[in-house]
């Protein structure tokens, strides 16, 4: 008697290898969505507190909501393509650097709290980047 593996059973090892990455992507997605909604919904009071122009806060919030949707989509793949995981790591790294640059380069007229706000954001994104890189390494090591 011969047995064949169903496609979902064949994908199980790849899915298990990506478990940590998938979890980090989902948590990042939720926190990014929450921050995006806060930036859009509270742009005026947030602008008053940080010095951030309302238009910048709204645009940044919309960008984050789109990013959150992308992260959720990638986390939902049965097998996460390594190229997408690498893209997430790269985009998050660029975003972290971008937050630091914006905080100090006077592109946006931030006050002291605004600078701290962006630096905390950069730190959070850096942590997600490191965790996603770790998850990517685990996933690709298991596949090798």
Q: What is the gist of this entry?
A:
With 144 residues, the protein is mainly alpha-helical.
Please give a structural write-up.
- With 144 residues, the chain is mainly α.
- The chain is elongated, with a radius of gyration of 18 Å.
- It has six helices and no strands.
Order of helices and strands: HHHHHH
Shape: elongated
Number of strands: 0
Q: Count of helices?
A: 6
Q: Name the structural class.
A: mainly alpha
Low-confidence stretches: 3-7
Distance between the termini: 31 Å
For the report, how would you describe the main beta sheet? none
Strand content: under 5%
Q: Which whole number gives the mean pLDDT?
A: 90
Kindly state the percentage of residues in helix: over 70%
Radius of gyration based on Cα positions = 18 Å
């Amino acid at each position: 008697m011969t047995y064949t593996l169903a496609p979902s059973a064949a994908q199980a090892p790849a899915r298990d290898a990506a478990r940590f990455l998938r979890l980090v992507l989902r948590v990042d997605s939720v926190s990014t969505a929450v921050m995006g909604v806060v930036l859009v919904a509270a742009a005026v009071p947030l602008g008053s507190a940080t010095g951030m122009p309302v238009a910048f806060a709204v645009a940044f919030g919309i960008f984050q909501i789109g990013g959150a949707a992308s992260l959720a989509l990638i986390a939902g793949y049965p097998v996460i393509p390594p190229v997408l995981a690498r893209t997430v790591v790269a985009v998050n790294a660029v975003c972290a650097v971008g937050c630091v640059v914006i905080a100090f380069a006077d592109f946006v007229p931030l006050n002291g709290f605004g600078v701290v706000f962006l630096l905390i954001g950069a730190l959070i994104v850096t942590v997600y980047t490191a965790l996603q890189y770790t998850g990517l390494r685990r996933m690709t090591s298991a596949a090798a």
